[in-house]
């Protein structure tokens, strides 16, 4: 017997599509799950556009005001896929309406907002998760398993980058539909909340708590035309950010993100160096995990490139897909997140990262931005 989970999707952009693909695929590849997503309603401000999205992706109905969506008894869960400045208001209202919430990252504009959101979901007792989807790339999950098994031993270094190059032109405006990421009022911050937040979520999942940070940020293009006013306005986001940190386990962290690294589109990489072994991962080659083990026999010792496609149960999630050697991609991380969320409803075990888990990432982002301003080390939290 399967149970329906009636979904209300808010936003039909990049993430609206990525998540909907996850909801549509999940029952085919995870047939054992008790809950089945039902695409009940899609919501966005423009009726014509949201209807076109609903028709294309198979939503049963549309709404142009998320408040109306939240009033509906036929909606069990809402998925917040809108710019960051809208997360808090929608999430708190959704919790008060008793809806389960799947919210995009970063959880909020800052820690204070995120704390209010956590309190709202905890008070309402509604299931919640934040879409830090990279945790569910099989190679990244495998890295987590290897670390938890102790394969790396004591960890000394954690290094991560997230590099892009799409905002180098001075002519690119800020604000509005596609460019809200350049507008601090909609995004909260620049690469810190948009890109480093992903690196931080993975880092704290793999390597534990961060105690303190020291950071620098830069805004290379100081003024851009705002699409809403047509006027040149000061740019309030960080175009680039680099920070050092200390983890509670004694290891050192080094993080860098920019949208000014010509040639790089979405180069998310991390490397972890432990006492016995090191691992490396690269989003452009997301189905591989590079592994070096010093305990290997000397003449064979070297970096090995693990093609994370074994479906015999050794490689996370891969038993759900094809045959060994055939890889999956970016969109599957969202299918996995949906599957884990549905499973969490069966077991009653929260689906991480919960709002509370994602607040930890927000606290680190705030400490990073605070340190870039103050010029000194900042404690997290
Ligand atoms: N997990 C990831 O890897 C990842 C990737 C991209 C974006 N994101 C996050 O997802 C969220 C959305 O980003 P995106 O790239 O999908 O943006 P997008 O610009 O592609 O889409 C935003 C959507 O929000 C809708 N919207 C704006 N205001 C609204 C309102 N008041 N009511 C209803 N709908 C409204 C727009 O119509 C649009 O459909 C952001 O929080 C972003 O940080 C996460």
Automatic annotation (TrEMBL):
Record organism? Maioricimonas rarisocia
Record carries keyword Nucleotide-binding: no
Which sequence ranges are marked TM in the entry?
none
Residue ranges of every copy of the Gfo/Idh/MocA-like oxidoreductase N-terminal domain listed in the record: 6-130
Q: What is an example of a Pfam family matching this protein?
A: GFO_IDH_MocA_C3
- Keyword Oxidoreductase applies: yes
Task: Name the enzyme group at the top EC level.
Answer: oxidoreductase
Q: Which residues form the GFO/IDH/MocA-like oxidoreductase domain?
A: 142-279
A GO term, aspect molecular function: nucleotide binding
Descriptive protein name = 1,5-anhydro-D-fructose reductase
